[in-house]
Every structure is written in structure tokens, then in C-alpha cells.
Amino acid sequence: MLVASELNKFSKTPATLRVTIPTQGAQNTYYLAVKPHYTAILLIALTFCHFLATQAFHVVVLYTYDVLGHYSHQRITYGISIPSAVLAIALGFVMLCILIFAMERKLDASMPVVASCSMAISAACSGGDVVMGLRKIRYGRNERTGRMGFLSS
Question: pTM score, two decimals?
Fold first, then answer.
């Protein structure tokens, strides 16, 4: 979703491509999957959800002794903390709802969704003898050929 959203920005405003070795103003920072602030929020939420889940379920070992104080037997059972379990389930549900609402976000209709497919991006960037990685580009119709693709601006 985030990669498609970033690629969709090319249909609105011209920007430089992200390349391995940047020259002449090209960008080199690339988020592999998730931007750092999304990662921090997700990490905090998952840590809290894990903490609540571990607090909700616990093992109880009971050692029983006879009247003389000698060991009789042991019983192993489990305990459940209802408030922690309910909070963990509620937090998981909220996280799922946020994901569903984020997936409902509409992209620009003029831009095809190619995600991170480098073949599709490379084909769209074929600008003849122009090196697209060094210029600001935008997505649109090529006036000369009539094809849709990335154009240098």
C-alpha cells in the first residue's frame, strides 16, 4: 500500500527517482516496505498487545501437602485474566480496523498500480536516450508517441 501510494505521487507532482548511486539531485533514501514512523507505531502497538496477551494467560502450579507436611502431589492448571484478554482482543481489533481503513484509500485513477515491480517501472521509464534517474519525472501521456508513462519534466 505504501509503495503504491509513493509511486502514485508521480502522477501529481514531478520528482526524481530513487537510485542506488545518486548524482545530480537524485534521491537515495528508500523505504523497503514501511516508513519509520509507521514502523514505530506498529512496534509499540504490537508490544503492548503482546504484553496484554502474556498477562491474560498464566500457568498455576499447586503443590499439596498432607496434614503431616509431607508432599502429596502437584496439580498444574492455567489461569485467565479477563480484563487483559479483553484489552488484547480490543487492541487487535482496532489495529485490524486501521488496516482495513488504510486499504480503502483511493489512488489516482490516471496511474496504474505497479507496486514494486521493477520491470513495470523500467518499462514506464523508457525515455529513449534520456537518463530518467537523473531528472525530475512525472507520470502522464507522451505527446509525441501518445503512450502513457514517466516523462521527464
Answer: 0.57
> What span, in angstroms and rounded, lies between the C-alpha atoms of 121 and 24?
21
Tens of pLDDT, residues 19-67? 666 666 666 665 556 777 888 998 999 999 999 999 998 888 989 998 8
Report whether 16 contacts 27 (CB < 8 A): yes
Higher-pLDDT residue of 35 and 94 is 94
DSSP states along the chain: -HHHHHHHGGGTS-EEPB-SS--TT-B----SSS-HHHHHHHHHHHHHHHHHHHHHEEEEEEEEE-TTS-EEEEEEEEEE-HHHHHHHHHHHHHHHHHHHHHHTPPPPTTS---TT-HHHHHHHT--TTS-GGGSEEEEEE-TTT--EEEEE-
Measured distance CA(53)–CA(40) in Å, rounded: 20
Q: What is the pLDDT of residue 50?
A: 94
Q: Side chain identity at 102, as an amino acid letter?
A: A
CA distances for 123 relative to 37, 53, 109, 148, angstroms: 32, 48, 19, 11
Instruction: For residue 88, count other CB atoms closer than 10 A to its CB.
Output: 21
pLDDT for the residue numbered 26: 61
